[in-house]
Amino acid sequence: MKILLANPRGFCAGVNMAIECLDECIKAFGPDIFVYHEIVHNRYVVDRFTQQGVTFVDDIESVPRGAILLYSAHGVSPEIRDKARQRDLRTIDATCPLVTKVHLEAVKYAKAQYNIILIGHEGHDEVIGTMGEAPESITLIETPEEVQELPFTDEDKIVYLTQTTLSVEEAGVVIQALKEKFPSIESPPKEDICYATTNRQHAVRQLVEQVDLVIVLGSQNSSNSRRLMEIGLAEGTAAHLIDGKAELRAEWFEGVETVLITAGASAPEVVVQDCLNYLVDNYGAEVEEITTREESVTFQLPKELRTLQSMT
């Protein structure tokens, strides 16, 4: 059996920054730290920090007054920031800068009295945070069919924004429907879907025709990881999204000659290597890493972290 190992895969710059931020917090202040929602959508990463003593919360009220609270990579709404201030929490914002970009766009367009169409998945942490920036101005849609139900006319001021972790094709069909119904609709100066999401999807699309099976490392609540699996399925190739090697099933590999392995932007490389080692040991698999695009993006740690570190 042959394995094609996609590159780029795994951690993006935003995830790297958020995880490094939490690691540095633990070094500076100890593990008695709270994080609003999962720091990133990956079970392995969350379990690692939980075992160190970090507490993940979904309610600001459950955080003790004066405690250190980290905002996750997915961002939060102004309402959450207000509640944190009311509880005198020492906050550190580990929001991915590309998510922050969408938040700032929402604020800008709302102030300019635009009707904002947000393309995204209801209930996703990132979408909740973005909508919280201007709830009276934002309408959330997910499919082209929902475009037809929008109450606006082409005479209205309309702009669309997108969740950063969508499939390029998924967003594209909705954008096309929006442009057909509202020819004057505006778009953000630069697309919202992040570079890492796009690059990982491009790698799967480029390599999927060469394989019989796609294995994506990532958690079920990771939007960008699910998109990678769905690309494989859309091409008629068997595809599975798993957290690690324990979820691999022998029947998946019956009659399979070539496997594509990739990882979502919140999946650590250690889980990829564990799977590779398992397949090499049990199937004698040969691994070929194929690079489809180069990545060199990095993000600085939040200034709030540096400020708190200087006070210790």
UniProtKB/TrEMBL annotation:
Catalyzes the conversion of 1-hydroxy-2-methyl-2-(E)-butenyl 4-diphosphate (HMBPP) into a mixture of isopentenyl diphosphate (IPP) and dimethylallyl diphosphate (DMAPP). Acts in the terminal step of the DOXP/MEP pathway for isoprenoid precursor biosynthesis. It comes from the Bacteria. GO terms for biological process: dimethylallyl diphosphate biosynthetic process; isopentenyl diphosphate biosynthetic process, methylerythritol 4-phosphate pathway; terpenoid biosynthetic process. (2E)-4-hydroxy-3-methylbut-2-enyl diphosphate binds at H41, H74, H124, T164, S222, S223, N224, S266. This is 4-hydroxy-3-methylbut-2-enyl diphosphate reductase. Dimethylallyl diphosphate binds at H41, H74, H124, S222, S223, N224, S266. Pathway: Isoprenoid biosynthesis; dimethylallyl diphosphate biosynthesis; dimethylallyl diphosphate from (2E)-4-hydroxy-3-methylbutenyl diphosphate: step 1/1; Isoprenoid biosynthesis; isopentenyl diphosphate biosynthesis via DXP pathway; isopentenyl diphosphate from 1-deoxy-D-xylulose 5-phosphate: step 6/6. GO terms for molecular function: 4 iron, 4 sulfur cluster binding; 4-hydroxy-3-methylbut-2-enyl diphosphate reductase activity; metal ion binding. Its EC number is 1.17.7.4. [4Fe-4S] cluster binds at C12, C96, C194. It catalyses: dimethylallyl diphosphate + 2 oxidized [2Fe-2S]-[ferredoxin] + H2O = (2E)-4-hydroxy-3-methylbut-2-enyl diphosphate + 2 reduced [2Fe-2S]-[ferredoxin] + 2 H(+); isopentenyl diphosphate + 2 oxidized [2Fe-2S]-[ferredoxin] + H2O = (2E)-4-hydroxy-3-methylbut-2-enyl diphosphate + 2 reduced [2Fe-2S]-[ferredoxin] + 2 H(+). Binds 1 [4Fe-4S] cluster per subunit. Keywords: 4Fe-4S, Iron, Iron-sulfur, Isoprene biosynthesis, Metal-binding, Oxidoreductase.
